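Hi R.,

Here's the chain you asked about this morning:
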Amino acid sequence: MKKVAQVVNISNNMASIKIARATACGDNCASCGNECTTNGHIVKIENKNYSIGELLIIDIEENNVLFYSMIAYGIPLFVMVITAVLSYNYIDFGDKEIVSSIAGLLSLVGSFYLLRIIDTNFFKQGTIIKEIIPFRGE
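And the predicted structure, written out as tokens:
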């Protein structure tokens, strides 16, 4: 998957690039009415003589995107469901439905902190980007 990005900042041999987010309406946001934001996603990469405002083509590993999406959405859902089921089966005080629902929601919040730890320790920023080449208007 190829995306066009723009260099927005350079500091300490790192370039911040802004990658446009994919929207449901494609490239024609004016016709959509969905009022989605067109802000981008800022990614820091090693500066290889880029200049501010330069356009780049980012080639992204599609398999990694699917894998990261599965982790980002799958882990919290899995943790919430397992916690709710286990708490419903093993808790003997109060209203079981309410207690298991609260336990599931608390585990959902906790799983986002778990994801933050996994993200900072195991996944590196460059593993999703296959290649970066200057945009030549093609």
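Residues 55 and 137 are 9 Å apart (CA to CA).

Let me know if you need anything else.
M.
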